[in-house]
Amino acid sequence: MGKFNGLVACILLITALTGCSKQSDSTTLVIKNINGYTFDNDRQLQQFETLVIEDGRVLATGDDQLSLSYPNAETVDGQGKTLIPGITDAHGHVSTLGYTLLSVDIRGIESAQKSAQIVADYAAQKPSLTWIQGRGWNQVLWSDKQYPTAAILDAEISDRPVWLERIDGHAGWANSQTLALAGITKDTVSPPGGEIIRDEAGQPTGILVDNAMNLVMSIIPTPNDEEITLALDTVGQHLLSLGITSTHDAGVSSTEHKLYRQIADKGDMKVRIYGMLSSTNADIEQSLAAGKTVDGDDYYSVRSIKVYTDGALGSRGAAMIEPYSDR
Predict the structure, then answer these.
(1) What band does 315 get if pLDDT is binned at 50, 70 and 90?
(2) What are phi and psi of 236, to 5 degrees?
(3) pTM above 0.70, yes or no
(4) Which residues pair with 135 in a beta bridge?
(5) Spatial separation of the C-alpha atoms in residues 241 and 251, rounded to whole Å
């Protein structure tokens, strides 16, 4: 993947041409009979019918006669499919998405009860898991617009701790066993920058916002290097399937930073990652002193820091001048 005369890097077939995703170093590939789009140096939209890739980089684009200049190249018939520049996601959380894809995914589910049922079905299929984890709930999509509760989860699964992060990562939903393991009771004080949501009697409901999430997350086993690598590999395949070839990763941990550099240097990074180191990393001062990072032919670069100040609107953790109208 690369550039030619202003072409956007990482051109990707969005439709069925999956067979040309990676070529050997010595291969010249010609994709013809395509409906291709790109931009020139003046940012004007250009169309083409043939694309030539050599040594993993875009070499040329042109009409159907272009392929005649490369008689020894491997040729793929694009079957009239559309080919566009690879998409860049300007705000992502790479490892988190990877863990989501490897755990229970409840994005877009229409109710808390349905979400709990999906979690229970997942848990039944994974009897060896000591923790059931997932992500994606969003009370804004539900008819009552209300936070879910531990009781809803307890009705479906109570034999193991459950921890489900909200879609934005700024709140978590726990069952009663998780609350007990974390020692969260009526008397537990909400930490600075976080909130333990409570019912009218003052009992924790199972929802923890922002820094209060750490009360649970601190007792969940930390992913090891192999699990992080698997998550990265999984998310890379997922992003490519959507046409995303580059992404920002907001809040890269120290462990992830080390592994990303190793993976990029080995040439195993599937998508380009622009990393933003987490300001909460213990070694952030050393990272700042070291300056920018560019590894693996620019497949992994770090030129910025993610700083945390407050929460998010959806989880009601964002700092506001006046109280939320629904709280």
Answers:
(1) confident
(2) -60, -45
(3) no
(4) 105, 165
(5) 24
